[in-house]
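re: that chain from earlier
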Amino acid sequence: MEKRVIFWVHGGISRKEVVGFEYRGEELTQIILPKAIEEYLSKRGEQVDLITFVPHSIYTKDAQKELEEMEKEMKNVERISLPSIGKFAVVKNIAYIFNGSYGYVRFWVFINLLKRYLKNEYSIFYFDISQGLNIYMDAFKEAFRSLVVFDKLREFPEGKIKVYILYSDPILGGVENARIYDDIELKVKAFFDSPINRPDREFANRHSLDADIKRVLTNFYRTFRAIKYNAPGLVLTFGYDKADRIAGITEKLLEKYINQHNPGEFWEAKRVYEYNLPEKPEEKTSIFLALALYENMTKVLEGEGIPPESKREFTTQDLLKFLNVYKRYELRVNADMLEKDIKRYEEVRAPEHWTLAGYVVNRNNFKPKQLEDLRRDPNAKRNFFAHSGLENNMVMVRRADDGQIVFKYTEESHSLIESFLYD
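^ sequence. v structure.
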């Protein structure tokens, strides 16, 4: 049985009355829409969990009364504090000031959604848009959009969860049996592209990334670009992280940000709320999206028999395994180019001893370039990727005893290759 969960931004219930709802032909009397869905499903032996984000500003009118009503009317509902935005006057000369921001609200909702997603408990997510201020609703919807992107990148390209928007007819005075709608699925497209730019030192400092997290993101960026720009030998040469390590890093970073940016509980005596606002929250969200794509990539690579361990020597048979990787990510041009470059080596007679690639494929017409000359050559990077990473001056070639062609990158070229990948 598919397990469901409903999220919503709490709009307050201390001044609300029960409402007659209609859902799938059945009349239900409840104070809020999610409770009506819960009643409908429970009658059929189905379970749905209810989780609400409660803005601090909800409590500014009468905190005690609102808490009492939530305890009474929202039993079995998990409550998560939500930072608020703006100034809320209570009576003359008394006001609450909340220094939240749209980006903070959106990021805080996203990481809490992600926490529940990673527990792998739910296959169907609902989010109710019938409550809460517009600014929270928009941030709420965008947070769910990021969750769907995360899911699609991690399970590329389809995803494993479904997300539906819940809403009802406007609840106005005299309205009976407001209909509930759950027929709109939140759909997004995910592309094989990097959600982040190069994770350099400044990037790591900006997002408080420790050495382990930065290392995994650096490995992601290298592996992604090697696949995206058709240099499969680099994946084999430098290796990549296993899926379980990436999953562990994702959970580690998630817990770090939840602890770091938790808005805390509302305290009635506290008038000014100075939250720990996340720096560039959109970038922080993108880090999680990059980790999701990296986890998928490593599963695809291992599924094709491409080991995660560093392999300083590799063969044409190793390179051929990337054709299915390219097919998975719809990199048809890469597949055509790689097949062409492999064929180029299969048509020549490679010597049994290590020889610079240019001498093998171009024979007497090859004039080798020194590494420093390549660094200054504006065409070197283009040539590198145009030939599947098998650049004539950087790769050594030999024929093994079993007839296979074996490659390896020259040790001195590694720094230049990394500059091609990271810059």
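Residues 85 and 101 are 6 Å apart (CA to CA).
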